[in-house]
Amino acid sequence: MEELNSYFNVNKETWNKKVAVHAQSEMYNMEAFKSGKSSLMPYELQALGSVEGKSLLHLQCHFGQDTLSWSRLGANCVGIDLSDEGIKLARQLNEELNLNARFICCNVLDVSKHVYETFDIVFTSYGVIGWLPDLKPWGKMIAERLSPGGIFYLIEFHPILWMFDYIEGKPIMKYHYNQEAVIYEEYKGTYADKSSSIISKEYGWNHGLGDVVNALIEAGLEIEFLNEYDESPYDVFPDLIKKDSGMYGLKEPLFPMLFELKAIKK
Question: Which of 55, 106, 228, 255 gives 20 to 30 Å between its CA and that of 163?
Answer without folding.
Answer: 106
